[in-house]
Amino acid sequence: MTIARRRTSATLTAGAISAAILSTLLSGPAAQTATPSQIPAPAQVQAPVRVPASGVYVIRRGDTLSGIAARHGVSLRTILALNRMHMRTIIYPGQRIRIGTGTRVAVHVVRRGDTLSGIAARYGISLRTILAVNRMNIRTIIYPGQRIIINRSGQAWAPATNPSVAQLKSMVANTARRMGVRPSLVLAIALQESSFRQNVTSWAGAIGTMQVMPSSGVWASRLVGRPLNLRNAQDNITAGVAIIRALIWTSPNLRIAIASYYQGQRSVMTRGMYRDTRAYVASVLNHERRFR
């Protein structure tokens, strides 16, 4: 991360744009010591998650509302309603929030050959319930190691997963095609931002594969018309692609759109590209040529 990132953290016209992990992530000490995310060992059903009997959770450092919701098998909407919060509410360590009464939520770990309809039949619930519970649709692609909540109430989010590099590349490319953005461009940005790792958070708070800031996640949620959980790999990628697409639509050219993803659109348009931004753009374009 750079000083430029700090001084441009709130410069996007429509909302703060995602922070990036600078190119040192690809060549510096962090890249040398980090290892790719590992897929959980296959199993038919993981141990259920239990919400505390008191229905009260104490916020810890690094927590997010969407992450708490996923971890305890309740919907983000439920947590917001119970605590009279909204998507922009700021939480802090030590804060106590209500997460509902104690429940148990079974989690299925996808295995090779699984289908959503087959999983639904195996547990005796409808496909519609599976889709609703996990915020999926009939076209959602599932992959081995992904965790899917099995819950008849329809009140739970899919928990965050850490797919492999190969799986993330496939998810990025498929999401880009579906949303009308050139896959090679999104793959290049994902490589530059995180080296295709979902389980990373920058010191500035940017999350996941596309390194999306929580505030930018709120904006991306509005762009796609549904809440996005940045700790979930597919939602994180969707957020990043939605932001890139919006920047392409509203920027004079592609170079400015890429720069805006890093520096912020308002800053780029009023101050020009900083030196590190120009290096970021050049690196992304170089990566993109490799992915064509």
UniProtKB/TrEMBL annotation:
Residues in the signal sequence: 1-33
Classification via SUPFAM superfamilies: LysM domain, Lysozyme-like
Domain LysM residue range list: 55-99, 106-150
InterPro entries per record: LysM, LysM_dom_sf, Lysozyme-like_dom_sf, Transglycosylase_SLT_dom_1
Keywords per UniProt: Signal
Protein name: LysM domain-containing protein
Organism: Arthrobacter globiformis
